Amino acid sequence: MRESGLRAATAVAWELGLGRVMPEVLSDRGSLMLRLPGTGLVARVSTHTGAQRVDPGWWLTQEVTVGRLAQEAGAPVVPPAERAGPHHVEGLWVSLWTDLGDSGGVRATPAESAAALAQWHHILADVGQDLPVMSFAHQLIAEPLAYAARRGHLDQRTHAALTREHQEALAGVEGLGTRQVLLHGDAHRGNLLRDRDGQWLWSDLEEACRGPVEWDLAVLGSTPDEETGRAALSAYAQVSGRAVPTQEELAPWLRLRTLEGTAWLIGCAVTFPERYADPARHAVEELIRGLPGA
To answer: What is the pLDDT of residues 102-152, one digit of tens each?
Structure first.
C-alpha cells in the first residue's frame, strides 16, 4: 500500500508539471502523508482509510472544500494547495496541501489545542451551511464494519452486535447539542500542525461537517488521555466563555466516538494488520464487554 501511495503522489506531481519528485514519508497510518521536496507541498494519499470507504474520493473532496472555506474565512487551517484536487491516480485518491515544514515533533499543549478549536468554532460557526450534518456518525462506522465483514475479518455475530450498538448510539444523541457549528470532526492535538510563525493550524479535515459543538468537545476532552483532555476542556471554556461540559453531558457523544474509532481500527486492520490487528482486537473486546447482555 505504501509503494502504491508513493507512486500515486509521484504521478500527481508529474501530471501537474512539478517535475520528478522523490516523496519523503512523513506518516504512514490510515493515510500516507508525503512531503514533495522542492514543491512546497505535502500529499495526503488515502490508503488504508480509503480502502474501507465506499467512495473515498467524496471524503477528500469534502476535506478540500472545508479547507478552502476555512482559509477564506481566516480560520486556523493548513491551506490547501492551489491545485489541491483531489486527484485520482493509480487507483488512489490524493490531495495536496501547503508544506509547513518540520515542527520538531512538538505537540500543542491543552491550552493551545483549546484556543485553536475555539477560534475554529467562532470563525466558522455559520460557514458551510450546505455541508452534510454529522456525516462521520453514519458512513464512517457502517462502511468499515461492512468492509471487514466482507473480507472475512469480522464474524457475523460481532458485526451484528456492533451494528446494534451503532443504531443505539445514534439514537442516544438524537436531539442533543447546544448549538450547531462547522465541526472539525477529529479535533485532537495530533491534527494540529505548527507553521513557521508558531501558529497552530488544523489539518486532517475529512470528517469536517456541520453538527453540534459537543462532538468536537467530546473528542478534545478524551484525547490523548483523560487528564490532558480535561485540561483542554477547561481551557476551551475559559476562551469561549461557556461552561465546562460534564462527563454526563459528553457521554452520549463519547459512546459514538468510541464506536467510530473502533470501526476505523477494524477497517485498517484488514490492509495493515501488522500495525492495527492487535489494537482492533482489543478495542472490539473492550467494547463488546460493555454492551448489555455481554
So the answer is: 877 789 999 999 999 999 999 999 999 999 999 989 999 999 999 999 999
Q: Please name which of 97, 99, 96 lies closest in space to residue 15, comparing C-alpha atoms.
A: 96
DSSP-derived secondary structure letter, 77: B
Report the distance separating Cα 251 and Cα 259, nearest Å: 12
Contact between 74 and 57 under an 8 Å Cβ cutoff? The reply is: no
Contact between 108 and 163 under an 8 Å Cβ cutoff? The reply is no
Non-local CB neighbours of 118 within 8 Å, separated by 6+ positions? 236, 239, 240
Q: Nearest-CA neighbor of 127 among 53, 170, 71?
A: 71
Cis status of the peptide bond prior to 79, with omega within 30 of 0: no
Q: What nine digits make up the cell of 277? A: 490487528
Give the separation between CA 237 and CA 189, rounded to whole angstroms: 17
Domains defined along the chain, listed by start:
2-98 (3.30.200.20), 110-289 (3.90.1200.10)
- 209-263 per-position pLDDT tens digit: 999 999 999 999 998 888 999 999 999 999 999 999 999 999 999 999 999 999 9
Stated pTM of the model = 0.94
- Beta bridge partners, 36, equal 41
Q: Residues near 27 by Cβ (< 8 Å), separated by ≥ 6? A: 33
